[in-house]
Amino acid sequence: MMESYIEAGKIVSKIRKDASKMIKEGCLVLDLVEYVESEILKQNAGIAFPCNVSINEIAAHYTSPANDETVIHAGDMVKLDLGAEVNGYIADSAVTVLADGNISERFTQDEINQNEELIEASAAGLEAAIATVRAGVELNKIGSAIHEAIADFKFNPIFNLTGHSLEQNNLHAGISVPNYDNNDRFKLDEGQAIAIEPFATTGMGQVNDAPGHYIFSYMNYKPFRMKSTQKVLNHIRKNNSYLPFSGRWITEEFGERRGNTALKQLSEAMAIYPYAPLREKKNCFVSQKEHTVIVEKEGCTVTTL
Predict the structure, then answer these.
(1) Active site residue: 39, 197, 213, 291, which one?
(2) Domain 215-275 is found in CATH 3.90.25.10
(3) What are the tens digits of pLDDT across the range 79-98?
């Protein structure tokens, strides 16, 4: 088990570093997510969830649909969140990059400085959290460390987003790791895997749903009168029953019209769960940094460095 966690972490770390170099003026988001996902498969690993590329005020859960024409612009605050699995054991990691290019044409120097500090804040929150992790630590202590580190920069964490525990073939395994002291006294056990992901913002620290649904999870098997929809559900049940999947993968397999129609019908019937992109409530910029760790008696092992 530990060997698989470590191997998945090494794969994610290398691809995260390589993909980060692509984040610059003119890069298509679609090219970035397809690069990340194809590189994971080239390493004989599985994709733990669709690569997320969430820009500026979008905090999480955006991945490209088919034929996405979204372009990254200089100075965009780009959150790259990716995951791989080896034998079902998952590595989940994220980094925030200010897109390279002529940033000064879009932002003042004060704005650039603030955006750079915002990225530092989420990184500081993650470092503080990792320093806190050990067997027996209460979850609220981790959240308190994150909040304090981000507040030192005079920013807010995202209060209604959390990290999460990981188990074999289970990306969100029941434990939520808060980004503030939420009074959760649950104690971590030695050997548990958790993904810690502080988000920092210049806004109020809350996210809500933005339009669109691009990421989905399988929920229940149900019979459908329309044969094409039933075929799509059978495909999802066979290939994506444990981990989140991209609508783009479905439209690539079944065509855009047929795939999107099926995704809509399956979502309405609660056979699959649709995830909306998450946007900061005041449309303020959000940064994120994330690592996967294995809890130890006197600390933790970070698998995604």
Answers:
(1) 197
(2) no
(3) 999 999 999 999 999 999 99
